[in-house]
Amino acid sequence: MSADSSGTTRWLVTGAAGMLGRDVLAVLAGDPRADVTALGRADLDITDPSAVLAAVRGHDVVVNCAAWTDVDGAETAEEAATAVNGTGVRHLAAACAGAGARLLHVSTDYVLPGDAVEPYAEDAPTGPVNAYGRSKLVGEQAVLELLPESGYVVRTAWLYGEHGANFVATMLKLAAQRDTLDVVDDQHGQPTWSFALAERLVALGKAAQAPAGVYHGTASGRTTWFGLARAAYEFSGLDPERIRPTTSAAFIRPAVRPAFSVLGHSRWSAAGLAPLADWRAQLAEALERPAFTGLLDVPRAS
């Protein structure tokens, strides 16, 4: 990571108005040596190569949180999704190559086939099962091709946080509307708090000796959506027995979801960093934030 003569590092955060982008900005706000440019979708269209080139110029580290995130919508708009998740990322990687900037690109477990029984290693063969995953894989390939020494692909999964729609917030909101909830118990993954991921992205951006390549930015441990919902109720003082298990067959959606999204974390040691904390520890801390406690409009369990 380079810096100017004053020790200041110039960061660019794209997708800065989203859930993860806002958390990255919050983490960087605590660093007096970070000079941060925040660009949301309204400020920067990453599918415009000229705009991307101008935006990246003068920065040392780019954190790309911009993405097409409508998984089901991508099934009927794969070209549009790939324009953002693939071609747009290529523009960012090319601009970073020209500017000598490091690129931290946020990707997804959906680039993997989801049929494993043990955690996927960072170098496991890819094989997306839906259009969204295919679009994200195009972006990964661009980063690794154009920035072999300064490109970082950080795959995450099952992300939740304070600043956007997400599964945990939905479960808490529904507690005021329904006595019981049926939640899928046959998809396995690692619920990850967006703020914890933001901290890790910033730490990786500062780790000057971290080797380029693929990292897995998910919480440690594993559970199912059912297990996550029960834990969210438990930690929020609600009765977890209100959550009932069901199967994916009960919730047919346009895009196929991977059944197994558990990722391995062995590469963090090469960057001098430990894997992210266990998902339950992350969830317990996240649910203390006002954005989540404010969703509880029902009596708490005694």
What is shown here, in short?
The chain is 33% helix and 16% strand. With 302 residues, it is of the alpha/beta class. It is globular.
What does the model show?
By secondary structure, this protein is an alpha/beta fold. The chain contains 9 helices and 12 strands. The chain has a 6-stranded parallel sheet with strand order 2-1-3-4-5-10, with helices on both faces. A two-stranded parallel ribbon has the order 6-9. It has a two-stranded parallel ribbon with strand order 7-12. Helix 1 links the parallel strand 1 (9-14) and strand 2 (34-39). The radius of gyration is 19 Å and the shape is globular. The chain starts with 8 loop residues before the first strand and ends in a 9-residue tail after the last helix.
What characteristics describe this protein?
single chain, 302 residues, alpha/beta, Rossmann fold, 6-stranded parallel sheet, two-stranded parallel sheet, 12 strands, 33% helix, disordered C terminus
Helix content: 25-40%
Find the structural class using helix and strand composition.
alpha/beta
Radius of gyration: 19 Å
**Mean pLDDT, as a whole number?**
95
Write the layout of secondary structure elements.
Layout: E1 9-14, H1 19-28, E2 34-39, H2 49-56, E3 61-64, H3 78-99, E4 102-108, H4 131-146, E5 151-156, E6 159-160, H5 167-174, E7 181-184, E8 188-189, E9 192-193, H6 194-206, E10 213-216, E11 223-224, H7 225-235, E12 243-246, H8 279-286, H9 290-293
Parallel strand pairs: 1-2, 1-3, 3-4, 4-5, 5-10, 6-9, 7-12
Antiparallel strand pairs: 8-11
Helix pairs in contact: 1-6, 2-3, 3-4, 5-7
